[in-house]
Write a structure and sequence with these properties.
By secondary structure, the protein is an alpha+beta fold. The chain has two domains: 23-354, Catalase HpII,  Chain A, domain 1 (Beta Barrel); 371-419. It contains 17 helices and ten strands. It has an eight-stranded antiparallel β-barrel. Strand 3 (84-92) and strand 4 form a beta hairpin. Helix 15 packs across helix 17. 41% of the residues are buried.
Amino acid sequence: MEQKQWNDLRLLARAEECGRRDLPPRRLFAKGMVATGQFQPYMTLQDYTSADFLCDPYQITPAVVRISLAAADSGAGDTSRDVRSFAVKLYTREGNCDLLSLSLPVGLCSSGDDFFALMDCIRPQQEEGIDDYCGYLRYAVQHPQALSGLLHLYGAQGIPGGYEAMESWSAGTALWRNRSGQLFFVRHRWVPEKEPVYLSENEGEFLCGFDPDRCRRQLYSWLNEGRAAVYELRLQIIGEEEARGREQLLCDPAVAWHAEDGVQVRAGRLRLTEIPKDSLRINQLLCFSPDAVVCGMELAENSFLHQMALILRTLQRARLGGLGTAAEVNRHIRRQRPLVEPTLTAVWGADQAQPAEAVYRRQARAVWNDMVPAQQQAVSRSIAQRLLFGAKQLQEPLLQSFAAVDDSLAKQIEMELSF
């Protein structure tokens, strides 16, 4: 009898171990990979922030990076046309610092409500388990702030050919403060040392079927051969005086900054050198949040990043429970206190309205006009294919949205549809 009870307990223990091994999947950014490395600044940035790891050019900070696709499930192809995430967790002496980036120069969302609307559009349909082929287009019909990002997504740089050569831009605007109390608006960008390579629509679709794990396999091979994937951290920094009167616009991730705004700084290098042991489990356990920052970095109250911090932490608790914060890979998570003065927040909320739709459309028009004719044709053809084979009911409302941006854009898509 005792032997039977012992066997039952042993089987229960093994069953619990297997259950803990299979963690619930992510609802977004499900397919991804992780790599570890180090970050080192080129010079001190003490004029802009009091963050310790950025003020000492001799300090080397361990880092882990998760690269993933936004809408794709775990079985999708790496070369599908989708938004990529490049999330960096820096293990500084002051605690974790998360730098979240996307493969688009401008965001698709302006608020937490926009994020949920986008999630509802692009995630696989729950009942049938089928991906929405036109999810991004469906979202853009109701959200004009997504039009600029949409043109980038369906443009020439929409399908990166490899993760070791993928550019990424900050998911929002951070606030930095130096030891003198001066405030700065900051956006970052990761620029690969290797020349970026992008795929055409046909190349991406072919590789999705032929080698769905191409980008992950390529980076694995790159690191296993002893080569490092190197990315340079570039910053665009705008001082408080220069930003006065347009703080709300500067904090909107769907509004691109002009290249001449503020100063451009080459801040440091991130070197990815190896794939960690038990990388599959680390890939599932890694948690990121915009409010995982250190002293000298802040979030504007009620900004997009502030709202996303609340959303992501809630989703992570629902998915992992206590496993997320207990995992070694998420060690030293600090609960960031609100740092922005209420007076500053109140001024932004009282005196500045949300950006008008005209701002978003004017920005999308500039993106479209900056493209050469061959790029315009490729964008139009890619969008038209999805409208033709994915959701014909979106054709009229989406053409109206594009006509409000530029008549030539709507006419080009309409011409592609007629073929």
